[in-house]
Structures are given as C-alpha cells and as structure tokens.
Amino acid sequence: MTKTSQELTLPITGMTCASCVAHVEKALNEVPEVTDAAVNLATERATVHFSDGKVDTNTLIKAVRDSGYDVFIETISLPIGGMTCASCASQVEKGLSGVPGVVSAAVNLATERATVTYVPGVAALADFKRAVAETGYQVLEMESDAGEDEADQEERKMADARFRMIVAWGFTAPIILWMFAEMFFGIVWPNATIYNLAMIVLALPVLFWVGRPTYRGAWAAVSHKHANMDTLIALGTGVSLLTGPAWFFFPVANYAGVAAMIMAFHLTGRYVEESAKGRASQAIRKLLELGAKTARIERDGVEVEVPIEDVQVGDLMVVRPGEKIPTDGLVRFGESAVDESMATGESMPVNKRPGDEVIGATVNQEGLLKVEATKVGKDTFLSQVIKLVDECQGSKVPIQEFADKVTGVFVPVVISIAVLTVLAWVFAPSVMKPLVGAGTFLPWVDPNLGVLTLAIVSMVAVLVIACPCALGLATPTALMVGSGMGAENGILIRTGEAIQTLKDVKIVVFDKTGTITKGKPEVTDIVPAGDFSEQTLLAAAAAVERGSEHPLGRAIVERAEARGLALAEPQSFEAVRGKGVIAVVDGRDVIVGSRRLMKERGIDPTSLEDELVRLENEAKTAMLVAIDGALAGLVAVADTLKEDSAQAIAALYDMGIQTAMITGDNRRTAAAIARVVGIDHVLAEVLPDGKVNEVQKLQQEFGLVAFVGDGINDAPALTQANVGVAIGTGTDIAIEASDVTLVRGELTGVVEAITLSRETFKKIKQNLFWAFFYNVAMIPLSVIGWMHPVLAEIAMATSSITVVSNANRLRKVDIHPEYVRRA
C-alpha cells in the first residue's frame, strides 16, 4: 500500500460468520483497482484501499453482490434550484455521479429534483450540496412537511413567472406597436433617433429586470465552464440589444426591440411551462392531500383528538361515518362500508367487520368503527405509495439515454453553429445571399438587408431556436403523468424502465394460487378407501395439516373444525417440498400428498386413480391420504377462479400477448383450469424452486416475460422475469418485491398496467420527436436567414408547451379494458 492509496468503507449486509468475511474480502481484492480489502464482521463493514485515482463504487458493489452478499445503500431525493433546461439537468447529474460513494444519480427537470442512490458513510448530503454548487446550481432546503412545502413552492413559482411575464409584455407591447407602424406603413415616429433610442430604453427593463434570472443563470453556467438554455437566450438577446447602440454608429438594423420580444416570449413560455408542469406533477400532491390531519383516539375511556403525527401503533382510533380512517389498522369494533377507491381505484365500497384490515386515508361511509393502529408515519400504505410514485418519477426510461447524450453536447454545438453562421455570412455572402433570397415568399425575410444585419439575425435565430428545454421535459413529464395515473388506478410502478419493458412483453406468466384463483380453497370431495370412514379420513388429514401453512391445508382444517371434529396435535411434522406433508397423529403415521409422495413411501395409489382423474378433470386438487402405510382415501379441494380471470386473459390475447400458468398442481388439474380461463401454455407440477428455471425457458422461447405472483413467495421468479408484477390486497402487499404492484388483486390490473405502459411510452416517443423537430430541424432555416429571431423564440416556447401538454393529454386515455367499460 503506497502513500497515494485512498480508502473507502462499505457497509456489508448478509454476513453471519468468518467464512462470509473471507468470501467478501476475496471478492473485493479481485477488483483491479483495489490494493487491499479488510472486512470486519462485528461492525459489518469493509474497508477498501485502492490506488491513487478513482474506483467505481458500482464495481465494488457488484463484486460484493456476486459473492452472495450485499452493500447497504440509501436513496435520497434532492430539490434542485436554478435549472432551466436539459443541459442544466445533465450538468447536475454529472456532478452528483462524480461524488465517491454515489451508485446512481438521475435528475428530473420537470420535478426539479435529483434522485441519488448512495452508500451511507461514504457519501452524505453535504457532499451532494457541494457537488451541485460546483456545477452552478443549488440544493434547496428540504422541509419536513414536504407536501405543503412543495405546493407552496409551486404556487410561488407560478406567481413569480406570471409577474415576470406580465411586466415583460407591459414594456414589449409598446415596442410591437411602434415597430408595427414602421414595418407595415413605413412610419418612423416621431423620428429615427427617438424611435431607435426608445427601442433600447423599453428593452432594458425587460432584459435586466424581469429577465435578470436568465442572465444570472447564464453567468452561473459559463463561470462553471458549461453552457445551458439561459446561455443561448442571454447570447441571443444580448447581441440583439447591442445592435441598438450600434445603429447610431454602423450600418446595421436596430434589433433591441426584438431582444425584448424574445425575452417576453421566453418568459411567457416559462410561465405556461410552469403551469403545465404543475398539472403533470399533481399525482403526488393529490396523494399527500388524501391523508388525515388529525385522529380521535380512546385514552382511558375518553376520546381525544390528536395530530396524526402523535398516533402510535396500538392506539384505538374512533372513526365516524363520513370520516377518513387516520392510518392503517385492524377493525376491532363495528361494521361499515369503506370507500377504498383512493388506494385501489375501485369505486364500489368494501364491507369491513372486526378483524379486517383497513387502509389509512380511506373513507368510512356508514357505521361507527373502532380501529387499532398497526402502521404509522412512513410505514403506512399511503406513505409507501407516495414513495414509490416519487421514485418512479425520479427514474429514467432507457430511451432517454439517447436524448441525454445529445443534451450533453447540444448547447456547445449550437453555439459553434451560431459562430459559423456569422462567419459564413461575413466571409461568403455570395453563397448566403441567394439562399436567403429564395425565402422571399416569407413576409419576414428581407434579402435587401445588409450582410452584417443578416448575419446577426441568423445567428440570434440559431441561438434561440435551439434551446434544449423541450428535450429535458419530453420524457419526465410523460413519466410523471403515467405513474400518477397508475397510482390513481391501483397500479404502482417502480421505475421508468418497467414502463418501457412492460409495453413490449410477449408473454405473461401467472402463478395460479391467489392470482388466477382467489387463493381461498374449499374442500369439495372426501372419498374414503378400504375400511376407513369419511370422519376418520378427514380428522387424520386435518390433524396433519394443522402443522402446515399451505392454503389447501388450511381449507381441510377449516372443514374438519366446521364439522366439530376433535383434532390431535401432530408430532414429527415434516413438509416435503412440492409433494405433501407427513406427521404422527395419535401414534399413527399419516401422509397427505401427491401420487409421487405415496409411491416414494411405498404406497400404491392406483385403486383411487379413476377418482383422481375425475376430480382433476374438474379442476380440483386431490390429495391422497395414507394411515400407517395403508391408502385411506383422498380429499379434494378447489380454489375458485377470480371473477375477471377469463376476461382479463382474453383481453391480453386481443392485445397480442400470450399467457402461461405456472403451478405445482398435476397436469390434469392445471389443464382444466387453463381451459376455463383461456390460458395458452400450462406449466404444471413445478416445484417452488423450479419457477425461476421455467421463467428462463420462456424468456429463451418468447423474449420479454412478465411474471404475475403474490410478491412474497414468488420473489425469485419476480426478479428473474423482465417485469415482476406483484398482485394482492390490503396493506401488506410486498411493494418492494416487484417492478409493478397491483393493489386491487384483480387480473384486470395486469391489462390496465400494460395499456398504461403502452400509452405512456407512446407519449414519450411523441414528445422526443417534437423536441428534436423543433430544436434540430429548424436550425438550417435559421442559418440561411429564413427564421426571424422572434419566430424562433415562439417556436422554442411552443416546443416546451407542446411536449408538456401532450403528456397531460395522457390523462384523457381510458386504460380500462372493454369489458370493464361495458360494466
């Protein structure tokens, strides 16, 4: 280790012994830049020394993960001040990404926030603030009451933008009237000197009072050795203003009034853009407004109203009809219908009785409820939803990578084109004059102007038309609206990448239990064999299943209890993965399971084969029971299908998407269910460990795969799939386990999620097209003098307004499938 060696400490998770330490150390020491790595099991930290220079944090994290462990990372959302265009966002992102310990950084121009994933202890808020400041921008203060603070900030921004726009037009309107008389009637009133002097005087407050933030932003960018939209506007208006004084000394037209007009249109564009961005970002604001502000809780038999922040787990909340349920909890007293539309998008109220879960911010409609608080603060369902929507809006869509690359070099290239334009007009007027002359069909093109004037007009038009604001807003605004719509309809999308991938899935794989079916099976048939009675058969099977947590086992126990059978406590319980269960009940060996398990234990099931086939053809799961080595009979259980399963799968078929069902059931049972719901491909008798392999096979055969499961037991398969979709109900949905979470627990949500992803991505592509069209396609027209600077600014402002408005039109799209609309 040399004197120039540097050090970095990583918090490691998943280690339990010295062997773990050795594995992590070995993995880190194999990274080329690392000179030495030491892992401390007690502190769960790895100290990494590396040679002078920069080591990639992601490389170290990958090395740890490849060894079977993980690095603890956190994500923070930072409000950024001073950004005006995609170039600004690119610079901030570049600055944050360069901080040691930062895993990833994504800057969203539309929300004016940076989402930073980092290793705590290696990087901290102070490092982020310093990195952002070094790029010429700033990290704003993060208030504790984020919802109200952001709403207030947006209102202040709107008011400020409105004020600057009104003042700008107050001074620019006289300029337009004065210029109108000169341009169309040849009247220079009262004389040329006063006219041209007035152009300068009226332009000054527009540029240097209400337009001052633009110049300030331009100076901040240039002083930090980069350029942005403000730089282009400042150059364009600055050069135009200078033609005013120049008119008194040189043969050049006075464009000081045009400078004011450019700035006025620019400020108008900023105001309209702020208004549209506010509409696009209203999803999180709406969610924040849903939460209750206070709660009535019982303390020592007395009702006390307290702020929602003071509610603790275990408090008994009193909720009257028409009131919001303050936080997530369990109903302890009373019955009522609860409107859960804010969480699920489902308009029909849900009946709640003692023992049922309720979600905070949902509305109690009828009776008095007493609810025990089970989750508070950041642990509540609503807080998780807000966090997820915020994360999605802070993420990026893969298609955006190309736009980001363009943005990184766009402004310097535009400035270079502007300089080359001036040089072409000055040194090759014989080439440029015929080009501008060909545009005389446009009323604002005048080839009789002097060469210097045409050079300035063309240069200013190039600078103004190419401002990359629209490029920065094209993707995030559509992503904001799409993720917000999803949340309103019970579809929680984790990342922008999930939206782009989901739209292209070729096959959707459904786990059967709890996804296609309700996950609440019931006993349908009890068939004893030999001398065993139905009661003996059911009691033995139920006693064994008392030790199991499988839904089928619970159904057998519930049937036995309903019949009033006394169930013995199972001994020596053993669950045989994917095959069944074994236990000793009242001194007798009892086996409950599949044909395979019976054969492995030396028991011949052929005497019940006809019954097995019949029940399996009826889509029932038949479990064989053996007592002391003798076949005792079988118990059949059926899990009823969800009401919308067949319709949702038919809708997917109409969308050109194939479907598959994966289950541990035997082939006959699985095939029977598949026939009823219309599934294309059946993967039966798949053990839990085999789901990942089956998903991999489908990926090889079909391409992109979406896996739909309960989000807990199916975590490996959800991760292996290109898009993992967790489906469930209540407050315990494993939101963290998937790319997409469906709150309602209905397959209709899968159809809606894919439809939403397709519509959102369509808007993203449209926005990128318009952004590139306005910013790139019109540059040649500006170079040859066909684009007046004022029209260029109007086009630039229009491009930003177009992409944001187009994103907001996504709200008008009905993502519900046809059968839901008809209902």
Structure classification:
alpha+beta
Q: What portion of the residues fall into strands of 2 or more residues?
A: 15-25%
The general outline is elongated
Major beta sheet summary: 7 strands, mixed
* CA gyration radius, whole angstroms: 34 Å
Which stretches are poorly predicted, pLDDT < 50 over at least 5 residues?
A: 144-148
For the biggest β-sheet, the strand order reads 18-30-29-28-19-26-27
Write down the overall mean pLDDT: 85
The number of helical elements comes to 30
Question: Helical content, roughly?
Answer: 40-55%
Secondary structure layout plus pairing:
Layout: E1 6-13, H1 18-29, E2 34-40, E3 45-50, H2 57-66, E4 70-71, E5 74-81, H3 86-97, E6 102-108, E7 113-118, H4 125-134, E8 138-139, H5 146-185, H6 192-210, H7 212-223, H8 229-247, H9 256-280, H10 282-290, E9 294-299, E10 302-307, E11 316-319, E12 329-333, E13 336-339, H11 341-344, E14 350-352, E15 357-358, E16 363-364, E17 369-373, H12 381-394, H13 400-427, H14 429-437, H15 451-465, H16 469-488, E18 491-493, H17 496-502, E19 507-511, H18 512-516, E20 522-528, H19 534-545, H20 551-562, E21 571-576, E22 580-585, E23 588-593, H21 595-600, H22 609-617, E24 621-627, E25 630-638, H23 645-654, E26 658-662, H24 667-677, E27 681-683, H25 691-702, E28 705-709, H26 715-720, E29 723-727, E30 740-742, H27 748-777, H28 779-783, H29 789-808, H30 818-822
Helix pairs in contact: 3-13, 5-6, 5-9, 5-10, 6-8, 6-9, 7-8, 8-9, 8-15, 9-29, 10-12, 12-16, 13-14, 13-15, 15-29, 16-27, 16-29, 17-27, 19-20, 22-24, 27-29
